[in-house]
Amino acid sequence: MVTQDKQLLKVISPREKHWVGDGFYVSSIFSMHSEDYKNISPFILFDHAPPKYFPPTKQKLGVGEHPHRGFETVTFAIRGEVEHRDSSGGGGTITTGGVQWMTAGSGLVHDEFHSTKFSQEGGEFEMIQLWVNLPSDFKMTNPRYQSFDEDDFPIVFKNNNKLNIKIIAGSFESVVSPVETFSLINIYEVKSLKNSKLEITLPEGSNTLFFQLSGKSWIGNKKIHQGYLGIFNRTGSLIKLKMEGNSKALILNGDPIDEPIFAYGPFVMNTEKELIEAFRDFQEGKMGNLVL
Ligand code: MN
Question: For the segment 199-236, what is each residue's pLDDT rounded down to a tens digit?
């Protein structure tokens, strides 16, 4: 069978930034309400807090207690550290280069703050929060918390070690990530030290997104700048990239979850009835509380 190239459908530019709480100044690149949703699923939200300097402070900067149900939040601490606690007993610090994969499932409440150490020292802060949808069969699964430091992810080296591919989720050339997911998902961080070409074969019919973290890349004759996101067509399975010089990007790939979505605020369900239930269950305290 001939492997067909995946075509780039469009490139989304960084959005105007807004504050999430008082710690995260984010550009919301896409959400499940986007017109491109069909080509983005199973990913349902992507917030990028681009590099920003925070001076040392004794204040706790971030977002206080709030609920989630029906999906997973994946937090990438690109620079700086994030502390988290949730009502299922999960918690800890996402250190620089680390990733937290939190399954909200049937529901929890949590908070998200700059770590105490980062706040005291101050510095450059950069973060991504990605929301991953859960298939209807798993929307009410038990909450779960998976935490990984930078060194926990396997790396595949290419181009005389001038290009490396960190496997954050799924697998690449039979190298497997330690992250457990509920549907087929591959997430790679690709880093080049000099001009490099890369071809990646992904599952036929899957959705693929490309986010430029630093430097620049080329997809065909389209240049992708820092903070921009490329969306590929579902058709085809081969993506061809050129990373220019020192360049870092994230590739998000997954089987689309073609199910109806009823979402509002922190809840992402399949029906209006389930959405109403989520609000009621939260108000009745069924998603738990944080121990102060
Ligand atoms: Mn949250």
Answer: 999 999 999 999 999 999 999 999 999 999 999 999 99
Edge-to-edge strands, sheet with 17-20: 17-20, 24-31, 43-54, 123-133, 71-79, 99-103, 144-148
Helix, coil or strand: residue 274: helix
CA of 99 to the centre of ligand 1 (A): 14
How far, in Å, is the centroid of ligand 1 from the Cα of 269? 16
Ligand 1 center to 236 CA (angstroms): 34
Q: Which of 232, 176, 242 is nearest to 204 (CA)?
A: 232
- Asked if pLDDT for residue 165 goes beyond 70, the answer is yes
Dihedral, CA of residue 204, residue 205, residue 206 and residue 209, to nearest 10: 100
- Per-residue pLDDT tens digits for 118-141: 999 999 999 999 999 999 999 999
Distance 74 CA to ligand 1 centre (A): 10
* Distance between CA atoms of residues 112 and 246, nearest Å: 31
Radius of gyration of the chain measured on its C-alpha atoms: 19
Give the distance (Å) from ligand 1 centre to CA of residue 111: 7
Q: Using the 8-state DSSP alphabet, how is residue 142 labeled?
A: P
Do the beta carbons of residue 72 and residue 43 sit within 8 Å?
A: no
Residue 13 CB-density burial (10 A; 0-12 exposed, 13-18 middle, 19+ buried): exposed
Ligand 1 center to 248 CA (angstroms) = 26
Q: Tell me the CA–centroid distance for residue 68 and ligand 1, in Å.
A: 7
How far apart are the CA of 240 and the centre of ligand 1, in A?
Answer: 34
Task: Report how far ligand 1's centroid is from the alpha carbon of 188 (Å).
Answer: 23
Residue 219 is which amino acid? Answer: I
> Ligand 1 centre from 228 Cα, in Å?
23
Nearest to 140 by CA among 287, 289, 37: 287
